[in-house]
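::Amino acid chain::
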Amino acid sequence: MTQPLDINAVSAHYGTTRVLQDLSLSIQAGELVSLLGASGCGKTTTLRLIAGFLSPTSGSISLGGRDLTRLPPHRRDIGLVFQNYALFPHLSVLDNVAFGLKQRGIAPADRRRRAFAMLERVGLTALAERAPGALSGGQKQRVALARALVIEPPLLMFDEPLSNLDARLRVDMRVEIRQLQRANGTTSVYVTHDQEEAFSISDRVAIMNAGRLMQFGQPEVLYRRPANTFVARFVGFENIIPFKAVARDNGTVTVETAGMRLRLPQDAFGAIPDTFLLATRPDGLMVSTDPAADGLPARLGLRTYLGRAYQYRCDTAAGHLIANGMLTTPLEPGANVQLVPVPEQCCILASEEAQG
């Protein structure tokens, strides 16, 4: 039976180095949550704490109300899918899948039936008697997934499971993992450094940095409404510009940065505070050659071709900004333009984030 997972104010140290600080996450029963971040952010440490391979220095971990904090790994009843597959080379595919059932004392006939049924679900019954060494990377990962699911764990955890596969196979496998997870309804924790992978597969995503939780929410919310500058830059908001409001009139707010002024429509941006950061992706700055356009004056620098757009490095009084322009009208470096914010491609961050 699937169960909720609760991580409450967990901290962890390696020697004198703190690698996780006061992490709290509540993961609902049947939910797939990804821990996302760069190497060293604390995501793998979190997985090891949940699995019981490490012990926290403070805080608690519970699954379905059962305290796991001090239980040894073999008593946690958690399914694990590893980056390197961790298959037994001397066992057949079928015996690898059945291994966890054997450890739990399931009768031979029953565990063989259940292992075959799980291999059928991952499309590998024809390879049941093969050795793992005769399988492709994608096939090995399917075996590892089948082995984790066959024991019907209340919690399933994935540790960078697709990083050894090529790009196309990673896309195919993440679809398969998501379909199987939804069909089983198993509460799942998925560790990855790949933003696209995390956003495509998850109900919610926890973005981590330096052992801290930076934001936890649905992928759409993280992508459109980051909570701070770290998350904004992580999800592609390359331009973060400090502004102060200098006038408010008839539904528009005149704002200023580095001596440059522009007007923002209040209804398009929502509440605009007196001081704030305007965060945009390159698509969020429209490149206009109209000198009367209400934007930031800029001089175009390096132009690169992205396939879907031309991208420009722009020099402004507020520093370098990145903007995407239309394919039909490539502009030459040195051109004077206006960079006009596109409201639906922008977000406003609290000004104190400039200090963090």
